[in-house]
Each structure stands twice: as structure tokens, then as C-alpha cells.
Amino acid sequence: MLLTLQLLAQLSVTLALFYNENVSAEVGLPSPEGQPMSRISILHGGTWFMGGDGCRIGNPGNLVVTPIRSPTYSGEVMLDTQHAGRELCSWLSTIEKAHRVMVPAWQEEHLKRRSNTSFWNLYRRFKLWRRSVPKVEFEVEIVYLDLWNKDRYGHPLPWAVALFRYKCPTHEVGYGLWDHLDGEFFSLSTDPMSPTEVHLLLQPRPGYNQPLQVEASNWQYLSGFVSGKRRTD
What pLDDT, on a 0 to 100 scale, did the predictor assign at position 102? Predict the structure, then answer.
């Protein structure tokens, strides 16, 4: 294969929404073509927002969904784009705000440490001179990736399962001012120690929920995902 699973995982880790509250697909159903993994990526502050169509996360604009099993004979899986996405966007914004609240305290502590450093301690003075305010960051751990998803209800929908947690600045850089946020992760569970797995629809394109030929080859699916075009021959 011209593009390895690892490369596609790196390209697809950040997360988009389109205009249906519920669409149908086989997202959420593990397949033999899926890949369990543990891959960490960084989500930077301000790269998400909650719009009328749901929660968009990451610069590529990927989709947070909740698979809901349909009782219909076809076994169709419905994708809710509102509940988990709304909660995740709210959590990210809340933690970002809590992070930014501590910035003035960090700046004050930083100036104090610079002024208290001996003129002759050139190495420490240089380190403090180069140091800047820690930016808000989140770790996104991809625990499952499925790139094929061949079902008769929609286009191939590359999707992943991920965990979100706050990336606390080290004590050396953050002076311990963000330690109270250390260990914070996204959870919808009643158990505060249990993180919630989030289903991510990776960079869906317009028309992703339209019917697709089920006899298409794996290469057709991969080509369509990479180029954004669907072969009809």
C-alpha cells in the first residue's frame, strides 16, 4: 500500500461536522480492518468550536459523533452529532478558561524568579529569558482507527475512538500553578475516574452519507479518502 496505516493515522488524528443531526453508517462497529492502537496527538487551544451543526475540533474540522444502534431490521447505526460533541466542546472551553486564569500569576512568578537569579548564573538567566507562558494543550489518545468502513448506508467513513485529557505544564515550566488541573480528562461517566471514549468521524466530505457501491475495492476506498473523489467505474 502506498500509504501505510501509521501515516494515515498521523494525518487523521485531529477531528468535523456537517449539517445532519443524525446520519447513518457503520461507525462504532469494530471491523477486521480496524486497528487498535495507542497514538498520542496534541490538540492546541482554540482549535474547536460549537456551532449549530455540532462540535468541530481541530484545524481540519472533524466530527464528534455518538453511534446509536437502530432497532430497524437493517441494523443501521445512527450517528448523533450533538450530545457528546456539545459536552466535549464545553469541557475543552472550561479547561482552557481555567488554564488562562492562571497566566497572570505565572507572569508574576516568572518575573520574580528572573529578578532573583544571580547575574553570574548565565545558564539559568538564559533559560528564564527563553521561557514563555505555557500554552493550553490537550492530549488526544487514539485507541482505535478504522479507515475502510464499507457499508451500504454511506460513503467510506474513516473514524476513530479517542480519549481527551488536559496536558499539564511541567512543574519546572509552570511553577506548579496548573498542578490542580493535572489529570483532568473528558468524561460523561458518573465515575469521576473513568474517561469517556469519543467517536471521531475523520474529515468527512460533503455527501459522505450518500449511497456507495458495495463492490468497490479497497483501493477505490483509499483513493477516494485521499483525493476526495469517488470512483464510479
Answer: 96
